[in-house]
DNA sequence: GAGTTTGAAACT
DNA sequence: CAGTTTCAAACTC
């Protein structure tokens, strides 16, 4: 699948692969960049000129106008003040835009000299300012502590620059809250700048500040606190670490488009104050992709109403590519969880959450039927959802899963976001307690998504602006430190952007399935779409297709039926493992066996050299499991000693003649099985939610286009996030909350291992509901670790069917 | 694009 | 569980 978009994605991506941020992303993202190009470019040197190419993809079409571009310059008199007047929180985009823009202005205001020239040297668009902003902040972060010592704060510009960077997050509020014009905001900012100078003039007590920050900013874990301390002391290098402490939770949200919507809508009235910018020059202008990325990222965090608005804006249904062309997958658990969330959310916030949730649902539904929008786009943004089939994992993934698990555990321990944090008055409450509360919650929970951070970043100053700055007050320190903290949102956001893009890049590699079913109604495993866990979409040429959201009930029922027959029916056919599957017997394949077909093929005539062969199709070699005849599988023959010429009869004859060998073989298998069981019990079990969160280790590049490779990812995260929002305590058994037949499936078919607490001691046994052997008999040599994982995962997915709502 | 081949899925 | 049928993808022309 050497599509142009992949090429586009792959090459520039590598430019920052060596950066800490990338490394971090790498560690987080379920998408494993497989094409690594060695380009040693640090994050600080990351030029956004490269970003467009990095993320250039058809779905990031020109129709996606930049929200930033749409933003007017704050100084633009035509800019509506609706964001203030409405009393609602402005959209993240607006905040973000102002955030960056005003940071620039702040810089100018604080540094009347050179910086102005820098900023005004060219009439950049706002997003280009943003482009500038990141390095600046990085510079600030990099230099501040040490630089202070070096320069003794003698360089005014340096200090002011720092102050500007520090104050950047404060500016938006300053502007918004100053009804008397920009003077107040400037004064406010200048005071911050001055305070910054004074701070440095008084000895640049960074250590003390950092210490205070560590104390004031209530981190949810010692790690986060430590990381924050580190980031202040060695910012650039520590950004990753700090984000590391924050990101897992963020990523869970961010991975999900749908869930992201929750955030802003929970606050506002639902009507975004943003008014359509009649001037379209921004849109028409060629936009750097970074802006699109930002927009994409932020849009994903916006309320659905904004998305709808954007749809109107585009006036091109189906071109809302970043969401609309998502191929609806059978990630039913998300819908169920979402629906469930409506019931469980407590009063105060439930209305908001529910509102947003419903918006999400509605929006999602609206977008489900994928209408003409370009096939490529469809492929670019296929189902960002849990393909129920894609449930294998590898031991390699344990790290990630473990990490996520820990993060999640922290989340669960966190208090719910208090309503005050979201309440319109929260941002304006002058009280110190209020501030502390808000900040605390932000620290503890605010990272639940970047929007919240951004939002808060723009709101925190609200407190500050209403307070008199006391130079000696701890509040000032807190303000500064919170500003610093807020500036970290930059990094978080960028990380999210990268993650999203990588995620999308991964999705492009698969999920573009199309069937041609005529008689099966796409409700049998004959249908590739159905088998892959995705709905049929337009490219399909199926007839009488029932595999569509409108027939969700039927689909689920059928699926359930099939799974009742074979719980692994929807599991990936090819299980890849990080570690080579142990070969059993000297005669086994000589080829690397990092993956095996779940059940083995049964080819008779194709010699496993054509895609008729599922092994070959899956890009894996045949194994003992296969019953193929005359195997010549290029990826690895079933039996190296029988390559090609022998027929199965020959093999059987040989085996019959070598009975002792067979017995030996069996013994080996037994030993191996036991060994694997021991290993498995030593490994952390994979909780349900985790299994849904991380994509398979499948590297789609190895797979033929039609193979059943699936991406987990976004929606899976949604599932988890929904649980978070609901505060469901038992993340391991979310299925218990499901209703109706889905629950029946869960309890009836959930293997013991999955119904338990997921403790490692549950072992590797995979039992079918009937107690029958789930795996085909050919697994006599025992499952590989990856296969075991796959079993667990697929079975865990069984109960995830939510109650359905007919799609329209 | 139509027809054939193939092997998995489904059925008995 | 084995044999048969059905089915749709893969393949060929």
Automatic annotation (TrEMBL):
Is Nucleus among this UniProt entry's keywords?
A: yes
Residue ranges, compositional bias (Basic and acidic residues): 656-679
InterPro entries for this protein? CRC (IPR005172), Tesmin/TSO1-like_CXC (IPR033467), TSO1-like (IPR044522)
Q: Name one GO molecular function term.
A: DNA-binding transcription factor activity
Q: Which SMART domains match?
A: CXC
Segment Disordered: which positions? 58-90, 175-194, 267-290, 341-361, 420-446, 581-600, 644-690, 741-808
Hey, which family's this protein in? Belongs to the lin-54 family.
User: What protein name is recorded for this chain?
Assistant: CRC domain-containing protein
| Origin species | Malus domestica (Apple)
